[in-house]
Design brief:
Number of helices of chain A: 7
Strand content of chain B: 15-25%
Distance between the termini of chain B: 25 Å
Number of domains of chain A: 1
Number of helices of chain B: 13
CATH topology of one domain in chain B: FAD/NAD(P)-binding domain
Helix content of chain A: over 70%
Number of strands of chain B: 23
Structural class of chain A: mainly alpha
Shape of chain A: globular
CATH architecture of one domain in chain B: 3-Layer(bba) Sandwich
Radius of gyration of chain A: 17 Å
CATH superfamily of one domain in chain B: FAD/NAD(P)-binding domain
Radius of gyration of chain B: 23 Å
Strand content of chain A: under 5%
Helix content of chain B: 25-40%
CATH class of one domain in chain B: Alpha Beta
Oligomer: heterodimer
Distance between the termini of chain A: 44 Å
Number of strands of chain A: 0
Chain lengths: ~140, ~525
């Protein structure tokens, strides 16, 4: 992943992953690292699409809000993202949806976060290791 | 033995009776059958070899390790549909839900009448199914471990008068960890990597992992071997060469990779059917916000079904999602997304699978053999079927007490009750307005048939054009199956193994030989008796 896109993803992570009470905030470094691995393992087409979506998102914000996405106050950035998600032109809705897919997977893939949501991965891993079904 | 790339020191060239490309639902059973019959068998698998200790409950890592292209394979067309496929020892069986259903009778009848496959006899298939079900410990999902999500949906559907039940699965002592699609961490699911492949290896088969076949060698109309390369697990770059000289080659790479390999090698193309006829069973899912926690994702994800609408081509099947996957699926971002994820334990999920009637798709050779392109467009009738399936699921969820139902349909992402259902029922959906669809059963791209002009393989699995080249994967299924296909692929693979045995021992195949069925019956009886004695 080029440094430019890594920098953008670091900034995008907290916009997509809003802080809420009871859950840990976004870890931009973790998001970038996961994205890097995930995109490397995937298809060149998806990689290109993903980077293009970052550029399109930035351009859309400039065009509709007259400001860089990263300089918007958090509430306004959130409203902008929501407006795209619910846009009646499906192609515009796809812009945050494609980016969000990987950003959210990387965030909610964390063991600590999954445990807080009731999916205690560490405990289940231990339990499964002890069971070991034989044919 | 199972050979990993780190154990290699140079190029490999070897001889075998049979070379099998792919180790999934088609390749695994053939490898076991032929290795146990005393033939030297080499299996070439593009993915890596992982055991239950490697399956760590993290969907993100599973996508990168166990899935082709990290699960990013998608169709080109409207709507865009994600088609995740396994790329590991065991193929997609390692990452599927384990559902084992037989071919529906009306589908088999269609194969007989429309595809010229009368010698695919129901009696023979039933014998094969029975043997496989016993070998794979297939039984109905245990209601004790199906999980609240599936139980609630099924009970409510039954109250509404819809027929359904618990799905038969290839699992032994399953505890319902809820992560079948990311590798079974206890080894309960009897996927090919823990069943057929270990048995094949015990019988002497060799499995080479991280090995991609690029060339099928054909001389004088007969296949004589395959050539390929090993791949570096990290970079995916080619390392050593691999060559197998074998009088019989079996393609079992799945409905995307198998036609791609044939197209790149320019063989079996005279019918013009290689890559055509793609069907995928498009799947939609609904999520429902309930008042009470459902214990997600604990429980068997795909354990309950509603089949009342199967004659229309709609099958409802259970699904539960770990947080990382649900987070990808929710139709919002930002604060709204975070608030919804806080209610994760109260969000129920159920899925639908559409058996295609008027959709069309094809696989074409991409820029490289590794990455074919799949074009697929949903037909108007199938879009309506998908809408109907969403309406049915929403109806059940509301009857179960859901406050909101979330759907993959533009303009109807959130349904609040009967009024929204009515509005959706009256709406003609645009294909571009359907998002987040997935499909798990690509098939039909090297269709089996009785006529060499409109099919790629005979009923034995052997290609019409190249002698001793067999295809045994979902690509041979001539029509959309309507149910999860793994058991049927396995049954056809075991059947094909019998023909390969005939070919290698006697030099001929007669698919209409009446004594075949008797021999099969006797063999299964002998195997059963020896199991009982042991």
């Amino acid at each position: 992943m080029r440094a430019y896109f890594a920098r953008r993803l670091r900034l995008l992570a907290p916009i997509f992953i809003e802080p809420v009470e009871g859950l840990p905030p976004a870890d931009p470094e973790g998001v970038v690292e996961f994205n890097r691995e995930f995109l490397r393992a995937g298809t060149p087409a998806f990689r290109l699409l993903y980077y293009a979506m970052i550029l399109v998102l930035q351009a859309l914000c400039l065009a509709t809000r007259g400001k860089s996405l990263y300089s918007l106050p958090p509430d306004e950035a959130d409203r902008f993202i929501q407006s795209l998600y619910s846009h009646r032109v499906s192609a515009l809705g796809a812009v945050p949806a494609v980016l969000g897919t990987v950003i959210y997977m990387s965030h909610y893939n964390r063991d600590d976060l999954q445990a807080l949501l009731g999916f205690d991965v560490a405990a289940m891993r231990e339990e499964a290791a002890q069971r070991g079904v034989q044919r | 033995m199972i050979v990993k790339p780190g154990e290699l020191t140079g190029n490999i060239r070897r001889e075998a009776d049979v070379a099998i490309i792919g180790s999934g639902a088609g390749g695994g059973p053939i490898a076991k059958e032929l290795a146990e019959a005393g033939y030297s068998v080499v299996v070439l698998e593009e993915g890596g070899y992982f055991t239950r200790e490697d399956f760590d409950f993290r969907p993100g890592q599973a996508f990168m390790r166990l899935y082709r292209d990290a699960g990013q394979t998608a169709t080109v067309g409207l709507p865009v549909i994600i088609v995740p496929q396994g790329k590991t020892v065991g193929g997609t069986t390692t990452v599927n839900s384990g559902t084992c259903l037989r071919v529906p009778r009306h589908v088999l009848k269609r194969w007989h009448l429309e595809c010229g496959l009368r010698d695919l006899e129901e009696d023979e298939l039933n014998l094969l199914y029975a043997a496989l079900e016993e070998y794979l410990f297939v039984k109905r999902a245990d209601p004790e471990v199906v999980g609240e999500n599936n139980l609630l949906f099924l009970r409510t559907a039954e109250k509404l008068g819809y027929s359904g039940g618990f799905l038969p699965r290839n699992a032994k002592d399953c505890e319902g960890y809820g992560v079948c699609a990311y590798g079974c961490p206890s080894g309960a699911k009897q996927s090919v990597d823990v069943s057929f492949i270990p048995d094949a290896v015990r019988a002497g088969a060799d499995v080479y992992t991280r090995c991609r076949v690029e060339r099928i060698v054909v001389r004088g109309g007969k296949v004589t071997g395959v050539r390929g390369h090993f791949l570096d697990p990290r970079s995916g770059r080619r390392t050593f060469r691999m060559g197998v000289d074998a009088p019989v080659v079996v393609l079992a790479g799945g409905a995307f990779q198998t036609p791609s390999l044939l197209l790149h090698n320019r063989i079996c193309l005279s019918s013009g059917r290689v890559g055509e006829n793609l069907s995928i069973h498009p799947c939609g899912a609904t999520m429902a916000l309930m008042d009470e926690p459902l214990g997600n994702p604990r429980g068997i994800p795909q354990s309950a079904y509603v089949d009342d609408f199967a004659p229309e081509g709609i099958m409802l099947e259970g699904v539960t999602l770990p947080p990382a996957i649900m987070a990808m699926t929710l139709p919002w971002g930002g604060r709204r997304h975070a608030e919804a994820m806080c209610m994760y334990s109260r969000i129920g999920t159920f899925g639908s699978m559409i058996s295609e009637h008027d959709s069309s798709g094809r696989v074409v050779a991409g820029p490289s053999a590794r990455q074919p392109l799949a074009f697929y467009n949903m037909g108007r009738g199938d879009v309506e079927r998908l809408k109907r399936s969403v309406l049915l699921m929403a109806e059940v969820w509301f009857a179960a007490g859901a406050r909101r139902v979330y759907t993959p349909l533009e303009g109807f992402k959130e349904l609040a009750g009967a009024r929204d259902l009515g509005r959706l029922a009256r709406t003609r959906l645009r294909r571009a307005g359907i998002y987040g669809l997935s499909a798990y059963h690509p098939m039909g791209t090297c269709a089996m048939g009785g006529d060499p002009h409109n099919s790629v393989v005979r009923s034995s699995g052997e290609t019409w054009e190249v002698e001793n080249l067999f295809i045994c994967d979902a690509s041979v299924l001539p029509t959309s199956l309507g149910v999860n296909p793994q058991l049927t692929i396995m049954a056809l693979a075991v059947r094909a193994a019998g023909f390969i045995d005939d070919r290698l021992s006697e030099g001929s195949i007669d698919t209409r030989n009446a004594s075949r069925l008797d021999r099969l019956r006797n063999r299964l009886r002998r195997e059963k008796e020896s199991t009982i004695v042991q």
